[in-house]
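Input.
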Amino acid sequence: MSSPQTTPIPQASTKFGLDNSIYLDDNKSFRRHVLERVKEVSVSQDILLFLLAFRILNALSIKTFFQPDEFFQSLEPAWEIAFGAESGAWITWEWRHHLRSAIHPAIFAAVYRLSSGLSWVLHLSPTYRADLLVAAPKVTQAIFAALGDYYTWKLGECVYGSGSNEAWAALALTVCSPWQWFCSTRTLSNCLETTMTVVALNFWPWQWSMDAEEDDEIDNDGLRINEKQSDVDEKAKLVTDFWDRKQNPDSKNRLRRCLLLAALACILRPTNILIWICFATFALLRITTHGKMLSLPWEGTQIWVHISSLSFLPATKQERMVLLTEACLCG
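Output.
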């Protein structure tokens, strides 16, 4: 009896970065798994492209004024960084005394320089050059806002599951929010801080805030994995392993990305550290409450007393050590 023939699948191997010479059995399990992965990529790309177009339209259509910080704490210092102290920028006193981080205006300074260079290469007239310099920071902030919307949706999927109604509801709420339309594309440091925080939360090890269980999957560093992988046959797992390494790095790398983004957000706005203190507390400590009956002889009665205490129940010892070590390295 001849052995079953194998069919080359160059599309799948090219899509997932595998060698084209690899041949995989043509079975339903493999095809279904590949199609699910390709569909996830396609949907994510479509959502991101839609959000980029939507927020760019949002940014260019906003003509109103919100508060002075969107100019005097970002664009005016950026203009001076890009074109020099004699360029006519309005610099407020805290910038003259170096009381603020220059990360945020430095981003827009780079945008101004690139826009100015592009206008010189294209030989634009002064009018079109001015229009480009006005629009460039808006488009840049629109990209940040779109990333914030996108990772809000991905955070919903992280918490409630891929393709869940709750994740789609989170996306709908952020896209349809009048406040987001009014504020998210403005050049405020708060807007960039929000995006960085949302992206960081996608990498936060949420599973460390839960009690450890015997059936938890553990990575090579002894850390609990965020999502349990479904059982697939060995042939489909070839694609799954590559995909998961690319899209879902191990817990330590995810934590490192999270803490680096959190550190940048805290440099941008120091009050952001309050958010991460709360998350670290939830991961490291657990408040347990138990009751106890106390007798009151002089009253001849008993009362129920609630007693609260802190414990190291959620995260394992290895996870606590990794969290503290990475926080010191990244922060």
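The two ends are 64 Å apart (CA to CA).
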